[in-house]
Design brief:
91 residues, 2 helices, mainly alpha, elongated
Length: 91
């Protein structure tokens, strides 16, 4: 669920029908409810950390990124896909 955002359907889920909530003993139902609440909290914490990390990564990238302004006559790399014998294709 944490990877895809939805419950994974396994072949065993199709073959074996999950028991109804009434068939689960009271003690196990409480544990299942607590486990679900913990998983919801864990996912929320993970989402918050991912958002914070994305903001930090963007800030660090933006600090290092620079806008290059070219003037007429400046040498630049140019993509030339035609191959000519005897000349370097990079320039």
């Amino acid at each position: 669920m944490m990877v895809s955002g939805q419950e994974v359907r396994l072949p065993a889920d199709l073959v074996y029908v999950s028991p109804s909530p009434n068939a689960i003993p009271e003690q196990q139902a409480g544990y299942i409810g607590q486990l679900r609440e913990k998983l919801v909290r864990v996912h929320e914490i993970a989402r918050n950390h991912l958002k914070q990390r994305a903001k930090r990564s963007k800030a660090v990238y933006d600090q290092k990124a620079s806008l290059q302004k070219y003037k007429v006559g400046d040498p630049v790399w140019c993509l030339n896909e035609s191959r000519k014998v005897g000349s370097c294709p990079k320039l």
